[in-house]
Amino acid sequence: MSTLTDRTQVASGGTPLPVSLKQARLPRWTPPVLALVAAGAGCGIGLGAGLDSKIQWGLITALLYIFGTYALSAAVEGGRQAKDRLATSLVWTAFLLAVIPLASLLWETVARGIKVLDGYFLSHSMGTLPDAMPGGGIYHAILGTLEQVGLATLIAAPIGLLTAIYLVEYGRGKLAKTVTFFVDVMTGIPSIVAGLFILSVWILILGFGPSGFAGAMALAILMMPVVVRSTEEMLKLVPNELREASLALGVPKWRTILKVVLPTSIGGITTGVMLAVARITGETAPVLLLVWGAKTINSNPFEDAQQSLPLYVFQQWQQGSEASYDRAWAAALVLIAFVMILNLVARGIARWKAPKSGR
Amino acid sequence: MNSSSLSDTPPTPASTDNFASISGKSVRPGDRIFLGLSRGSGIALLVIMAAIAAFLTYRSVLAISGDKANFFTTLDWNATGTEPKFGIAVLAFGTVVSSVIAMAIAVPVAVGIALFISHYAPRKLASTLGYVIDLLAAVPSIVYGLWGALFLVPHLTGLYGWLDDYLGWTGIFEYGDGAARSLFTVGILLAIMILPIVTSVSREVFLQAPKMHEEAALALGATRWEVIRMSVLPFGRSGIISASMLGLGRALGETMAVATVLSPSFLIGKSLLDPGGGTFAQNIASKFSEADEFGQDALIASGLVLFVITLLVNGAARLIIARRKEYSGAAA
C-alpha cells in the first residue's frame, strides 16, 4: 500500500517518473526453495520425533510448505496474492498427495508381480497344487475371463448398440425418455447387486448351477448402460447433413443408419465397447457369486464352475501364504496389463477414426 | 410418427410405380423390422431393470418374513438354523461412514487435481496427466483391494498411533494396537479408488469453462485463484456435484476392496480406527460361500437395501444437475 501512495504523491507533484507499477513480488525461485526447506524440516521432525511412518513425514512437509508460503506471501505481497499462493500450493499438494498412492499401487503391482510371472505361469492351471506351495499358474483364469467377457459382450453389445440407435435415430416421446432415465439408473447399479439378481433368478429360482454363462449375464447387465451411453454420444456427433443427404436420395432410413450413420461413427463406437469390456474384465463380485472359481481348466462356460482373473487374485489373497500372495500379485499384473492395453488400443482407435463433426 | 421423415416425402414425379408403392402409405418392411429391433432393445433394458427390482424384492420378502429379529435394527448376522436373526444396522452404518470418509478425502483432492490439470500444470504435462488419470480409472477394484490389504494397511499403523495420541480424546480416533483394518482405512482406500473418476469428470467440466469469462477476470487484474473462484468454479459446480455422486455411487457399492481390507465384525464401535464393522457389499461377498439358500436370500435382502440407496443417490445427483442446467444456460 505504501508504495502506491508514494507513487500518487510523486504523480501529483507533476514529475512523471518511470516508476514500476509492479507490486512487490516474491522471486520466482521462492516456491521450490520453500518446498525443499519444508521437506527438509519435515524429514528432520520425523527423524527427531521418531515417527516411523513416512506418511506422517509427508503430511508435516505439506503443512509446513502450505503455511510457509502463505505467511511469506502475506508479509511481502499482500492478502490477495497470499490467497492466490495458498490456492496454488494447495492444488500442488493435492496433486502430489494423490499421485503418491496411485504411483505406489502401480509400482507395487509391477515389482511384486514380476517375481513369478513367466511362460509357465501363463500356460498352466493350479491343478492339484496345494495352496501354500509355489508354482501353478493362471491359464484357467485367463481362459475363463476371456469366455465370460466374450459372452457378456455378445449379449450386451447388440442390445446396447440398438438401444442407442433407438434413442438417437428414432427416440421421441415417453418411451425414449424412460429408457434414457433407466439407462442412467442402470449405470449406477453396484456390480454385486447385478450378481445377486442373476443369483436369484438363474440359480435360486431356475435351479441352474454356477457357470461362466451366469457370470456373463451379470457382466452383460453392467456393460449395457456403458455401451448405450458411449454409442449415443458418438451417434450424436454424426452431422445431420449426412443423414439428410442419404434420405434425400431415397435411401430407406434403416439403410441410412447401417450404411451412413454407423460407418461414420464406427471408431467411436468400437472405443466405447472396448472401454466397457475393459471395465467388466476387472469385476470380481458377480463372478464370485455366480462362477465360484475353480482350480482346474474348464473350457465350457455353460456348465460347472470356472475361474476368472480377478476372482483368482481374490482367492489367492484369501489363502494367505507367501506363495499365494506372489501369485495374486502376478495375476493382478496380468489383469492390469490386459485392461491397460485394451484402454490404450481403444483410445488409439478413437483418435485414429475420430468422426469429423460438421461444425 | 417416428418415420414421418420418410412417409411424408412426396413421391417425385420421376418416380416409377415401383418407387411410389414403397414410399406411399405403408412403411418399408426393412424400416419396420429395424425400428422394431431397436425399440425392442430399449424395452428389453427396461424389462431387465424391472426384473432386477422385482426378483430382488421377491427373495427379500422371503428372507425378511423368516427373520426372527428386526431386519433394520439387529446387530447380528446369523441367517442359518431354526432361529435366524439378522439385521442391517451395522452394514448401513459401515457403508455410510466409509463412503462419507471417502468423499471427504476424495472430493477436495480430486477438485485440486482437476484444477491442477486444467489451470496450473504446464500444458505438456497436463495432457499426459489427463491421459494417465483416465487410465488409472480403469484399474480393477480387486487390484486396489490387494494393494490396500498388503501395502496400505501396514503403512497406516504409524499414522493411526499419531491420530490416537493427539485426537484420541474424541473417542472417534481411539486406536488400539491391532492391524489397521478398520472402516477409516476402507474410507482412505475408497477415496484413492474414486479419485481418478471424480478427477476426470471435474477436469472435463473445468476445461469447458468459458475462456471469455476467465480472460475478462484476468483483464480486471484478478489473480489466478480469483479467476478460478469467480469464473471456473461457479461454472463447474454442477459438474463437481455429478462427479462426486458418481464417485459416491462407486464407493457405496464397492465390494472387493472392502472385503480384502476390512476385518469385519457385527458391532458398531465407537472408534473408526479400530478394526470392525462391515458394509453391505463386503458382507455379501464374505458371507456368501457359507450361506445356504435362506442365507442367500438374507444377503439378497441386504443387497436390495444397497440397491435402493444407490438409486436414491443417483436420483438426487440427476435432480441437482437437471435443476442447475435450467438456469445456468452456459451448458447449452
Automatic annotation (TrEMBL), chain B:
GO terms of molecular function: phosphate transmembrane transporter activity
Domain ABC transmembrane type-1: 92-317
Native source organism of the sequence: Streptomyces chattanoogensis
GO BP term (any one): phosphate ion transport
Superkingdom in the source lineage: Bacteria
Record keyword Membrane present: yes
Listed InterPro entries: MetI-like (IPR000515), MetI-like_sf (IPR035906), Phosphate_PstC (IPR011864), Phosphate_Transport_Permease (IPR051124)
Function: Part of the binding-protein-dependent transport system for phosphate; probably responsible for the translocation of the substrate across the membrane.
Protein name, UniProt field: Phosphate transport system permease protein
Ranges for region Disordered: 1-23
Family membership noted in the UniProt record: Belongs to the binding-protein-dependent transport system permease family. CysTW subfamily.
One of the record's GO cellular component terms: plasma membrane
Family matches, as PANTHER family: PHOSPHATE TRANSPORT SYSTEM PERMEASE PROTEIN PST, PHOSPHATE TRANSPORT SYSTEM PERMEASE PROTEIN PSTC
Membrane-topology annotation of the record: Multi-pass membrane protein
NCBIfam families: phosphate_pstC
UniProt xrefs under CDD domains: TM_PBP2
Main subcellular location of this protein, as a coarse class: membrane
Protein keywords: Cell membrane, Membrane, Phosphate transport, Transmembrane, Transmembrane helix, Transport
Subcellular location: Cell membrane
Pfam families membership: BPD_transp_1 (PF00528)
Membrane spanning stretches: 42-66, 86-117, 129-153, 183-202, 239-262, 298-321
